[in-house]
Fold these 2 entries.
Entry 1:
Amino acid sequence: MAGDERRSQILQIAMQLFSQHGFRGTTTREIAAAAGVSEAMVFRHFATKHDLYAALLDYKACNSEFSSPRERLKKFIAADDDYGVFYNLAIGALTYHSQDQQFMRLLMFSALEGHELAEMFFERFIVDIYNFLGSYIEKRQQAGVFRQTEPRLFVRAFVGMLIHHSLNNNLWDRDRRLLDVTNEEAAKQFTEILLRGIKLENQEAESKRNES
Amino acid sequence: MAGDERRSQILQIAMQLFSQHGFRGTTTREIAAAAGVSEAMVFRHFATKHDLYAALLDYKACNSEFSSPRERLKKFIAADDDYGVFYNLAIGALTYHSQDQQFMRLLMFSALEGHELAEMFFERFIVDIYNFLGSYIEKRQQAGVFRQTEPRLFVRAFVGMLIHHSLNNNLWDRDRRLLDVTNEEAAKQFTEILLRGIKLENQEAESKRNES
DNA sequence: GTCTATAAATAGATAGAC
DNA sequence: GTCTATCTATTTATAGAC
C-alpha cells in the first residue's frame, strides 16, 4: 500500500478507536492490529502516539462537515425568519451529530482529558454560534419581537436542547428507551418551545408598541 | 491511621484523580503517591484497581447528595404550581452540579468508558425524572394548560438546558467567557422559557375551553 | 513499505520484613 | 498498618533485516 494511503487508513482506524476508548484507553498495539499492520508501521507514519492523536484531531477539525452554520442561516437571518433560523440550526446540528457520532465522542473525551481539540473546537465554532445567534436575538429584541433578557441565555437554552438530545441518542440512551423521535420532530418541537418561550406575547407586544 | 480511615482517605484521593483523568488515565501509583502511602497499601484495601473504582462509584451512587427530586417537588406538583415544579427542579440540579463538579466528570467519563456507573445512574435517576416529570406534564395537558405534544420531548428540552448549562460551567467554559449568570438567574430564565414554550397561549386556551 | 525482534519504561499486583 | 523490593505483563518506541 502506498504511503499516503496507509497513513490515512491508520488515521481512520485510530479515529474509531480513540473515539471509543479515549487517548489513554487506546494502545498503539490495538491500532496496529485493527489496521492489519505491525506497530512499527504505525510509528513510521506517526513519530509518537501523541502525534497520531494530534493529526487525527487536526484532520477532524479541518475536514469535518460540521461547518459553521453562519452561511447556511444567512438568508433566514436577513429575512427575520425566526422559525427558519432556529429550525435550520437545529436540524443541521442534529443531523450532523447522527451522521458523525465519532466526532461527539472524540470531542467529549478530548474535553474531559484536556486535549486541545476541545479548546480549538470551542474557539472555532461555539464562540461563533454564540456571537451570531446572540446578535440575531438582540436585533429581534430591538424590533420588539423577543423578550428583553440576556440573549446568550436564550442561545444557551437552545443549544442545550440540541446537544443534550444528541448526547442522549448517541451515548446514554442509544436504544431510545426514554424518548424516540425523529430529528425532524425534535428540531421542530425545540424550535417551537424556544420561540414561544422568548417571544413577547401578543398583548405584551401590543402594549410595548403603544408605549413608543 | 486506622483501617477504615485510611480506606476512605484513599477513596477520596482516588475519586479526585479518577474524575480528573478517567479510569485508564489514572495509575495506582499516582493514587498511592497522592494519598502519601505505598502502592501496597492501596492494594491492601482494594484487591484490584477495578475494585477501587467500583467502590468509588458505589460510594458516589449511595452517598451522593444528588437525590431524586421527586420528594422535593411533591408539594408543587400537588398544587399544580408549574413555576414551582420547574424552577425548583432547575435550581436543585444547577446547585448540585456546582457543588459537586467531580461527580459530573466522573459520570461523563464513566459513560464514555462504558462503566456501570453511567447505566446505574441512568436507571436510578434519569428514568425516574422522565417518568414523574412526564406524567406531571401529561396531567397539565389534560387540564388544558400545556400544549399537546409528546411530554418527554418537553422533559428533554428542559433537562437539556440544565445539563448543558452545567457542562459549560464546569467543563468547557469555566471562565464564563460565553455567558456569566448566577444559577438562580439561569434557573429562572430556563423555567420561564420552558413554561411560555409549552403553555397554550391565552387565545388557544380560551378556544379550547369553548370547544368542550 | 513491511516485518520480527527487542529495548526501555511503566503498568498492575504480590512477598515478606517490620 | 506500613514499607521496600520485586515480579510480570503491557506499553511506547526503535533497530535492522528483507
Entry 2:
Amino acid sequence: MDVMDDRAKRIVETAVALAERDGYQAVRLRDVAATAQVALGTVYKRFASKEEILIAALEQESEKLVAKIGKKPVPGSDAQERVRFVFSALTKGLLRRPNLAKALVRSLASGDPNITERVASFHGLITTMVMAAIRGETPGEPAASPVGVDGREQTVSSILQNVWFASFVGWAGGLHDAAQVLEDVDKASELLLAA
Amino acid sequence: MDVMDDRAKRIVETAVALAERDGYQAVRLRDVAATAQVALGTVYKRFASKEEILIAALEQESEKLVAKIGKKPVPGSDAQERVRFVFSALTKGLLRRPNLAKALVRSLASGDPNITERVASFHGLITTMVMAAIRGETPGEPAASPVGVDGREQTVSSILQNVWFASFVGWAGGLHDAAQVLEDVDKASELLLAA
DNA sequence: CCACAAAATAGAACATGTTTCACTTCTTTC
DNA sequence: GAAAGAAGTGAAACATGTTCTATTTTGTGG
C-alpha cells in the first residue's frame, strides 16, 4: 500500500512485463532499468534487490486479484464450495501469466529475511479471503459478526492455505499441473469442511 | 542413490559444511572447489549448477534422516501420535543445522526444472514415512498388508506433508519459529486423524 | 534568478555463478 | 610400455546482481 512514485511504478511494471514474457531469469536489472528509462542506481535507490522488486510485483498483483475476488460475496451454497471458488479464482488468476507466477513463487520462497513482512502480508491477505469464504461473508467488508478470532475456522483456513501454497510451489517446480493444485485443495477442504 | 565418486562426495560435503556455517550465500563455488581440492571445471562436470549440489546434499541428508527414523516401527499408540513423531523427528533433524536447512529449502523451492525429479523423490520419501506412520508400520519395510494405494490415507498424508512443507518454508523465511511448524502439523493431524 | 541540496544519471567496478580453453595427468587398450 | 582418449586443472572470460563514484539535472527556499 506504499505510495510509489512514477519511477518505482515503471520499474515494477517493467519487471512484471519481463517476468511474464520469459520468467525470473529474464528480469535482468540492466534491462529493467533501460526499459523503465531509469538509471541502474535509481532502481537500487527504490528497491534493495531483485527479489524486492518481484515481491512488490506480487503485492500489486495479489492486491488486484483480491480486490476482484473480494468485491462481491463469495458464491457457493456451503463453505466447501465457497472455498473452492476462492482458491480456484486465485490459482487461475495467477496462472494467467505462468512465468510471472513462477517468478513470484520463487521470490516468495527465497527465504530472504528482508522480505519477510511482505510475505506475511501476502499470507494475511489470503487468510482473510479464505476465512470470509468459509463464513460466507464478503471478503472486502469487515466481518459482520464479531466471531472469535481463534476458532477452528482460523485453523482450517490456515491449513488450506498451506496446502494451496505447497501445491502451488509444486506446480511452479514442474512437479504437477495446475489441475492438481485445485484437486489438492479440494480434497483437503472436503476432509476439513465436511458439509 | 547414485554412486558418487570421491570428488563428487567431497564437493557435496564441502557445500554442506559451508551452508551449515553461513547459509546459502556462503556456498561460493570457488570456495567449494578450493576446499574440496578440485578445479571449478570439475565441479561443473559433476553438477549442472549450485542448486544441484544443494539438492544432492538434501538427498543425502534426508536419506540419513529417513534411514534413522525408518529403522524401527514408529512409536505411538494412535495415528496422530505417530504422525507427530515422524514430523517432529524430521523437523528437529533438519533444524539441527538451521542454515543448511534454509539453504536446502531455497533450492527445493527454486522452481528449477532440472531438479524436479529430485524434488519429487524427496516428496516420495516423506510420503512413504507418513503413510507408514498413519498405518503403524515400519517405514523401512515393505507394507505388511496390500492396502489399496489410493485410499484416504494417501490423501491425508499428502495434505499433512503439504502443511509441513509450507510451514517449514515459512520458518525458513523468518515468518515464525520452529515450534509453530510442529504446531501447524499437529493441528492439521488433529483434524484429519481424529482418533 | 540563484545557490544549494537532493535525486538522477552514466558508467565503472566488484562478486559470484557459469562457460570456455589450452594444457597436463590419468586410464585404458593394445 | 606407448598411443589415444577421458578426466582434471588453472586461468581467463562472460553474465548479471550489486555497489560506488563523478557528474549532471532537478526542485526548493531566499
